[in-house]
Amino acid sequence: MTDSSALKPRLVVKGLVAGYGDVIVLKDIDLTIAEREIRIILGGSGCGKSTLMKNIIGIEQPRGGTIELLDQPIDWSQGRPGLEVFRKVGVLFQGGAMISSLTVAENVALPLDLHHPELPKTVVKDMVAMKLEQVGLGEAYHRMPDALSGGMRKRAALARTLILDPDLLFCDEPSAGLDPITSRGLDDLLLELRDALGISLMVVTHELDSIRALCDKMLFLSGGKVIFDGSLEDAEESGPEEVRDFLSRKAFSDSRKSARLTIKTEAK
């Protein structure tokens, strides 16, 4: 865990209002992420977690409020912000978003091709190889995405997000579809990258094991608003009932499983 009290912010969101058409999904959202901090975004289905991320990274235009990313305001007054605003930001999408017709190496190189077309191919090759080694996929350089397991595709997508050395990394349900062991390995990798590279992370997830492994601070959304902003420990001890119920659902599930086993035993 990281003490963020003395660290400068890498993301500051104030009074964010977001929605689609006539529907307001989020209202008056405040969020700060400090350098080297891992911030978990939580809430029930449809609470606006993905909407929050889309507004921050420029996919959707906010209805109101301000967003300051790496000390730079995100300004929509002249239209959609340019790619240069997000050059030091990485995004790991839920499905990995790998292009199936390209090799793993070609997928990882895409941000370099977009932002630095002047780089010699030999330099690009070396940078791609380094990032694949960093995520434990050095042997997958020439492979196609369809030949990789789900966990390996997530790692390859992560290598692509790291190729421009981001200061801030957004992860949308990184463990979705992964088995517990693979998921734990991905969590460990994210922690290692934070410690080695000093990056900050915003992680949208509902996986309790990942929350407990990664969380420095959490933001819990409900009814389009923030109902809790703080540490996991404070959430479990004194958070709103909805937050505590969310975090204790594994124990509740285990108790129901135990009860079912008891009933089956008694029925024999």
The backbone outline, from C-alpha atoms, is globular
Strand tally: 10
What fraction strand?
A: 15-25%
Instruction: Report the span from N to C terminus.
Output: 48 Å
Number of helices, where a helix is a run of at least 4 consecutive DSSP H or I residues: 9
In the CATH hierarchy, what is the superfamily of the domain at 1-35 and 44-87 and 207-268?
P-loop containing nucleotide triphosphate hydrolases
Q: What would CATH call the class of the domain at 1-35 and 44-87 and 207-268?
A: Alpha Beta
Biggest sheet: strand arrangement: 6-7-8-3-9-10
Multimeric status of the protein: single chain
**Helix proportion range:** 25-40%
CATH topology type of the domain at 1-35 and 44-87 and 207-268: Rossmann fold
**Stretches with pLDDT under 50, minimum 5 residues:** 251-268
Largest β-sheet summary: 6 strands, mixed
SSE order, one letter for each helix or strand: EEEHEEEHHHEHEHEEHHH
Which structural class is indicated by helix and strand composition?
A: alpha/beta
> What is the mean predicted local confidence, pLDDT?
87
Q: Compute the CA-based radius of gyration.
A: 20 Å
Can you name the CATH architecture of the domain at 1-35 and 44-87 and 207-268? 3-Layer(aba) Sandwich
Structure commentary:
The chain has nine helices and ten strands. It has 268 residues and is α/β, with parallel strands linked by helices. The chain has a domain at 1-35 and 44-87 and 207-268: Rossmann fold, CATH 3.40.50. The chain has a six-stranded mixed β-sheet with strand order 6-7-8-3-9-10, with helices on both faces. The protein is globular and about 55 Å long. 36% of the residues are buried.
